[in-house]
Amino acid sequence: MTPTESSPMPEPMAAPPQFHVYDTTLRDGAQQEGLRLTVTDKLRIAALLDELGVGFIEGGWPGANPNDTAFFAAAARGELTLQHAELVAFGATRRVGGVAADDPLVAALRDSGAGTACLVAKSHVGHVERALRTTLAENLAMITDTVQHLRAEGMRVFLDCEHFFDGYREDPRYALEVVRTAAEAGAEVVVLCDTNGGMLPSWMGDVVSAAGAVGVDLGVHCHNDTGCAVANTLAAVEAGAMHVQGTVNGYGERTGNADLVSVVANVELKLGWPVLPPGALTEATRIAQAVAAITNVSGSARAPYVGTSSFAHKAGLHASAIRVDPNLYQHIDPARVGNDMRMLISDMAGRANIQIKGEELGFDLSDRELAARVTDQVKAREADGYSYEAADASFELLLRSELGQLEEYFSVLHWRVHSHSAAGAPSETEATVKLRARGDVQIFVGEGNGPVDALDHALRRALTPAFPAVDRYELTDYRVRILEGPVGEKGGHGTDAIVRVLIDTSDGTRTWTTVGVGSNIIEASWEALSDAYWYGLLHDVATPGPAGRPAGTDDDVLTVAASR
Ligand SMILES: CC(=O)SCCNC(=O)CCNC(=O)[C@H](O)C(C)(C)COP(=O)(O)OP(=O)(O)OC[C@H]1O[C@@H](n2cnc3c(N)ncnc32)[C@H](O)[C@@H]1OP(=O)(O)O
Ligand SMILES: CC(=O)C(=O)O
């Protein structure tokens, strides 16, 4: 930690000589509702985890389903090359009454090609007797037999003690007996699992210390049902666990697992133990986002360290202090985890937000009066329903307009959209846009799949002769909501309400967001759409034009005709 960072640093604990960062995104993470990984997804995520520098990647349960078996086969064929990590195959102890050497799922572990196996075993008396429906002695025999067999086959073995913390509360003697049995059979690390995720941080330390007295390396695996998975993991680490299990973005069964990136960032940045390869932590944000892109399950914007909001500042008082020193409102420099500070523009902004955001965009807003004028504009427009927090591009247009630095690439003289639907026939929508661009008046008609599409076609066609770059612009998202409360009072309720439309536009490399507001959804959409083209041109066209936003002329007509 640098002296300028905000959190006070307690006396550092000594790091254990060897510390394991163990990722289970591909196994326990994949147990999350709505998350389904193909073999290719798994290979790509494993490569990213290796880039993050984790020590172990639990790839899945070979033999339990064809997908996981195929993943290990692909890895064994050389489709996965790991620089840092070891691949781990997950599985269970042998079946009750069986023999490990003959157990088909144990065979799948052996045949997986992974050098390490992680076995799940029961350590809670109630689970042995009621779920496994066997004796306490047979459960211990299953552990001994399976661990010894895999060790004899040349594999490293870790053992997950399922429901360890709950089991310890019910019968500490038996829970510790499981730890001892696994250690004596040759398990290298015995992992204490909070399978139901019901623990609190203050409950962890004594239990971990008691297990530590057995004299084996301990790991910890926590679920997040109390919202304490990361805190519980850290409590276990401070009590002596040297192996932490977790998942990227906290994916996992029910409420998820401990977020491994949070755990690792806390261990590195707060406890001061370097547990990843040098510099790897600065890739954490990129990797968490890349994993989310593959799973198609986005991480929380408010995720510690790597969320898009982790270092986003909205309140005016925060921004005014941040202008003096960002560390006054940040616990670390975001660059340490590869994240960035972001300044949000909203009705909670003060001058400082506007000045910092302005500087970010390349404008000098040091003049207090100018900054105050822009702040007042933002607050007035937000009161009318605009939202600049999510619409950076519209904010830049507003700022340039206030500064007199908005080029007039085009001025709209007239637009119209007409939808027609007759019984039994598909509806037809046609839009007309008349505008002046580079001195020429253009009038174009566009047909589309609905009014926004038709307007987009007409606007694009009308602008193309003057600005061929617009051909690359594509609407990538469209969000609309009705506005209620003080803002909505200006309109009405229900279908009569004012609406806010947010449009994301991409040119293939950049994406920008614009906002439109109105009592007519088509007008609001048009405002957001035309601003999107305006903003795109601002960054595509170097030719300066006369300053000022497109002003309406006396002969301008604005028509909306929608019929059913
Ligand atoms: C805490 C965790 O999250 S551990 C990971 C859990 N992950 C999964 O369960 C996903 C993969 N699982 C599967 O594909 C299947 O459950 C399989 C292939 C493992 C087993 O499937 P099936 O043979 O159809 O059995 P089923 O799932 O109904 O029951 C599990 C069996 O394993 C037994 N079992 C449970 N834990 C263990 C253990 N640690 N060691 C040995 N056997 C166990 C159960 O008692 C039950 O035995 P039974 O068949 O005699 O009733
Ligand atoms: C092993 C495991 O996933 C658990 O106990 O939660």
From TrEMBL:
Gene3D superfamilies: 1.10.238.260, 3.30.160.270, Aldolase class I. Residues 19-286 form the Pyruvate carboxyltransferase domain. Its EC number is 2.3.3.21. GO terms for molecular function: (R)-citramalate synthase activity; 2-isopropylmalate synthase activity. PROSITE patterns: AIPM_HOMOCIT_SYNTH_1, AIPM_HOMOCIT_SYNTH_2, PYR_CT. GO terms for biological process: isoleucine biosynthetic process; L-leucine biosynthetic process. It comes from the Bacteria. Pathway: Amino-acid biosynthesis; L-isoleucine biosynthesis; 2-oxobutanoate from pyruvate: step 1/3. It holds the Pfam family HMGL-like. Keywords: Amino-acid biosynthesis, Branched-chain amino acid biosynthesis, Isoleucine biosynthesis, Transferase. It catalyses: pyruvate + acetyl-CoA + H2O = (3R)-citramalate + CoA + H(+). Belongs to the alpha-IPM synthase/homocitrate synthase family. This is Citramalate synthase.
